[in-house]
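hey so u asked for the seq, here:
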Amino acid sequence: MIIRIMGEGQYDVNNVDQDLLQKYDNQVEAAVAAGDEQAARTALSALHDYVTGNGQPVADDYLGSSEAVIPFVDATLAEIAELLTGEGFIPDPA
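ran it, structure tokens below
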């Protein structure tokens, strides 16, 4: 799966712990649902750090699409909520 982090680039997360990736994604979704901007930013920062720290950067000339888009880490609650789907940022595993 390729994840785009807005303003930073794309990361291949096929070889990361998918359960942990989902955990971070679910934390963002729960904080947004609760309307807690500080918790949403904290959770988004943890998700960002996990993706950038464990995913493999995708080459700048890669022309394929991203399966998920994550906002920049200092996004507002409204900006975060705008990108959420019914499954968070990252589709739930089948």
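Residues 11 and 57 are 4 Å apart (CA to CA). Strands lie at 2-5, 9-12, 56-57, 68-70.
lmk if thats what u needed
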